[in-house]
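Tokens for chain A. Residues wanted.
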């Protein structure tokens, strides 16, 4: 029996997906729920499992092609004997199927319905000096979506940034003391991120405009605190969302953040897990960055940037002391967030970090 494999709908607002890699080739056997191919959408990259056990006898769309949802992209044969007799179809399909390393087909070869529209990343052609040593590679679907999203954000919001210095000595010591406890008691690694999320949630409750969005001439105040936590991937960046983060304990938040980050890197996230964010935290400091001025994640109105934590000499009670210091930045939409409000919000985040309640651990 033949079973059609279709492009899944990875969310209500998603109309198409780009096949980035076939994990099985013509003639391969596959088990039910075994990863069959990989797709990229404007929300998430994901591995798509096989709907049935059988043999892959036809691949209709090669890696690099963008396909509408519910369109058949491959065919399985669940009867091994029938699959063996399906020889004529296999070579033709195999010729069309690209290997995982093959580049996507040129735009001229794409189907009209799947051809990408003119988007924000488009730029004038770049010329190079004769003999220049270059290597040209097409952007991945995720890279193109990030580019579009960032440029659109710059066009939409009036970006302004504020920067605060925070003494993280107390939290650094607490984390070191509680790391083995968390691993033993909760089975998860205690990172710095839950401390930032907790401090941000407390400040968002006090300053709800930072958790809002702009819709035409209206300001939409969101009651839920859904915190996006940026995760750097080898192939781009994704922002899983911790829903109702203010309702979680530090232990619960730690487990949730670690789980989302691990599944993001394994391409196991569901579309719903990267949607609905109301405020975003990004942490370039893990790579040694002193501080950054991030671009707002639309349709949000602010994004918090976490800098690297370094021991520095600072003045404490008129004496020089060695403290673990960090820069905290926030980019915000000046259409609705005034500098005074942004500074008071950041001051509260700073206070929440410097005076973190140890009993919460």
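Reply:
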């Amino acid at each position: 029996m033949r079973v059609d494999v279709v492009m899944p709908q990875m969310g209500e607002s998603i109309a198409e997906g780009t096949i980035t890699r076939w994990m099985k080739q013509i003639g391969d056997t596959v088990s039910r729920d075994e990863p069959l191919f990989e797709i990229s959408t404007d929300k998430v990259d994901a591995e798509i499992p096989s709907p049935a056990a059988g043999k892959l006898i036809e691949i209709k769309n090669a890696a690099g092609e963008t396909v509408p949802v519910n369109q058949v992209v491959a065919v399985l044969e669940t009867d091994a004997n029938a699959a063996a007799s399906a020889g004529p179809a296999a070579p033709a399909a195999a010729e069309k199927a690209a290997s995982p390393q093959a580049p996507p087909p040129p735009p001229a070869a794409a189907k009209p319905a799947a051809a990408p529209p003119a988007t924000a990343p488009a730029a004038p052609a770049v010329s190079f000096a004769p003999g220049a040593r270059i290597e040209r590679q097409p952007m991945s679907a995720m890279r193109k979506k990030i580019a579009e999203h960032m440029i659109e954000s710059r066009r939409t919001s009036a970006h302004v940034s504020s920067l605060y210095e925070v003494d993280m000595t107390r939290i650094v010591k607490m984390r070191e003391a509680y790391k083995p406890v968390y691993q033993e008691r909760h089975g998860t690694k205690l990172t710095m991120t839950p401390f930032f999320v907790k401090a941000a949630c407390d400040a968002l409750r006090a300053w709800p405009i930072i958790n809002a969005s702009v819709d035409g001439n209206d300001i939409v105040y969101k009651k839920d605190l859904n915190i996006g936590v940026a995760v750097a991937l080898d192939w781009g960046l994704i922002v899983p969302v911790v829903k109702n983060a203010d309702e979680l304990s530090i232990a619960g938040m730690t487990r949730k953040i670690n789980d989302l980050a691990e599944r993001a890197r394994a391409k196991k996230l569901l579309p719903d897990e990267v949607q609905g964010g109301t405020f975003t935290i990004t942490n370039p400091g893990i790579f040694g960055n002193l501080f950054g001025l991030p671009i707002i994640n639309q349709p949000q109105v602010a994004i918090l940037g976490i800098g690297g934590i370094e021991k520095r000499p600072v003045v404490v009670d008129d004496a020089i002391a060695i403290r673990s210091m960090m820069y905290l930045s926030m980019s915000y939409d000046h259409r609705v967030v005034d500098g005074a409000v942004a500074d008071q919000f950041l001051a509260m985040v700073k206070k929440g970090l410097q005076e973190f309640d140890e009993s919460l651990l």
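Residues 81-120 have pLDDT under 50 and may be disordered. The longest strand covers residues 319-333.
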